[in-house]
Amino acid sequence: MSEPMIELRGVSKSYNGRAVVGDLTLAVPRGALCVLLGPSGCGKSTTLRMINRLVPCDGGTIRIDGEDALRPPVEALRRRIGYVIQSTGLFPHWRVDDNIATVPRLLHWPEPRVRARVHELLEMLRLDPRIYAGKYPHQLSGGEQQRVGVARALAADPELLLMDEPFAAVDPVTRDALQAEIARIHEATGKTIVFVTHDIAEALRLATMIAVMDRGRVVQSGTPLDIVERPASDFVRDFVGVQGLGLKLLAVRRVRDRLQTGEQADGEPIDAGATLAEALAAMVARRVGRLAVAEGDGRVVGAIALGDLVR
Fold first, then answer.
1. What is the pLDDT along the chain (311 residues), one digit of tens a residue?
2. Model pTM?
3. Is 135 exposed, middle or buried (0-12, 13-18, 19+ CB in 10 A)?
4. What's the N-to-C CA distance of the chain in angstroms?
5. How far is CA 135 from CA 95, 97, 138, 159, 288, in A?
6. Which residues share a beta bridge with 27?
7. CA distances from residue 225 to 29, 194, 247, 252, 270 in whole angstroms, order as listed
């Protein structure tokens, strides 16, 4: 088994004698999208900030890619880690292309390479470079600013991306679109991502792994399905919520797990990697009870019916 990308052992942090994080232990596999989930004040953001040394830990060890996070100079560590926050943190008097180019220029990349990377990232985040490269942050919507913030965090191709409630301040429609972008980028790049939220629906949509936190400790970690189906305590059960459990299960199970291989259906196929919740939404929108199912290469492999969703 390969070494975790991030490993925290017995990590603690106190402010004015009050423990914010205490004896926290967590291993995040390489390539995972790990969501730190819990109520406000449980230590999620503090834990994230200790990983990139924005906040010093009082005790315990943090290892990144097998190396003690305290060993390299702090600037060198942070240049290996992309960081996205709720307020974007964009430089207001710099154009979008200069904001994205910040870290590559600090690393002395040749200017043609910088320009190519900015162009690549704007296209990846579905922002037309011809329209957006020369704009200033105040000329962008909240969702566009967040996309630029993500592009800047990815600019130097970091091995690790930290995201601290990045979509909490945008409207629900924009938030939905940004969540879809992060899921797509994670699948395309395979980067290790640690994402902080208190929103269970957001966690279930994005995570390959969830660490539920309470009073500065991880009280359960596992796949989204583990957390929903097998909560380890009353706290986890209450936080995840027993109401709407069926819909939560639809959000974490995949079409490929329920498809009828070799069967056929009319219309545009749904991706086999889509959730059952997405399949239900597509059936309702199209007013059908059956969908064709295709793999990522477009090859139709079967169909899924309304009854399969609740099988």
1. 467 999 999 999 999 889 999 999 999 999 999 999 998 889 999 999 999 999 999 999 999 999 999 999 988 888 889 998 877 788 999 999 999 999 899 889 999 999 999 999 999 888 999 999 999 999 999 889 988 998 999 998 898 999 998 888 788 888 888 888 888 889 888 899 999 998 888 888 889 999 999 999 999 999 888 888 889 999 998 888 755 666 777 877 888 888 888 888 888 999 988 888 889 889 888 888 899 999 878 889 999 998 888 76
2. 0.81
3. middle
4. 34
5. 5, 8, 8, 28, 43
6. 7
7. 17, 18, 12, 6, 22
- 69: Cα separation from own chain's centroid: 22
Q: Give dist(CA 33, CA 209) in Å, integer.
A: 6
Cα diameter, the chain: 64
Please give the structure tokens belonging to residue 169.
């301040």
